[in-house]
Amino acid sequence: MALNTQYTIEDLKVLMTRLREPTTGCPWDIQQTFQTIVPSTLEEAYEVAEAIEREDYAHLREELGDLLFQVIFYGQLGSEQQGFSFDDVVSDLTAKLLRRHPHVFPNGTLESRVEPGGSRDTAAIKQQWEVTKQVERNAKGQGKILADVPINLPALSRAQKLQKRASGVGFDWDNLNDVVAKAEEELAELKEAIASQERDAIKEELGDMLFSVVNIARHCKTDAESLLRAGNRKFERRFGYIESRLGEKGESVANTGLAELDELWLEAKVQEKPLAP
Length: 277
Prior knowledge:
By secondary structure, this protein is mainly α. It is built from 11 helices and no strands. It has 3 domains: 92 residues, Helix Hairpins, CATH 1.10.287; 68 residues, MazG-like (Helix Hairpins, Orthogonal Bundle); 47 residues, no CATH class.
């Protein structure tokens, strides 16, 4: 085939089957299980997020392909175990999205359409979405409001999802000022714990403080996990600047006093001002 061949999802499914053929497939792929490829799935998902945050859309195309391959892989494993196939995954997803979008597909079919000019109330649509999801959870025996929030989510993401789920049933602060006040209250309790030098109390209050900060992010309609990743990148840039400036003089961070390091940190912040608010 020519290098510019436009492959399809069906071609990818055939490729996946070939990779898993017991006698002629890839030895590595043949050894994999649902459990062993989970780390790769998480890694690929984060690489997608990173490409988007960096606005590296040329690279995003490749990363989305890598993430899609993970889904294809799970579908192949499911088919081999006669549990489900990739096509089942697609069918179930389509049915679920039809069910959750009655404001687009009023009869629950791809062919059905709403009349032009109908209600587009975003708040009502969101409320209906949550009601539908709760009905689905009840059908799965997950009637409790927080029952299906994944345990293995990153802690910041899970905290935000827990807060959002609770908010959906009215368990929430009315405004941002109340949320900030709660964070200030948690900070005061953390200071008391630190003053007492009780390690368990410090750990508990630190957890409460972090949870409160995530709540601030949620009320500001931002994603706590993304914000911390951005903060990490900022720290890396500024620390890298300090290393470079010291390297120009043949010096290192380890052998430089804190006062000079602080001056270079401030210098790095000034250098970044045109790039960041």
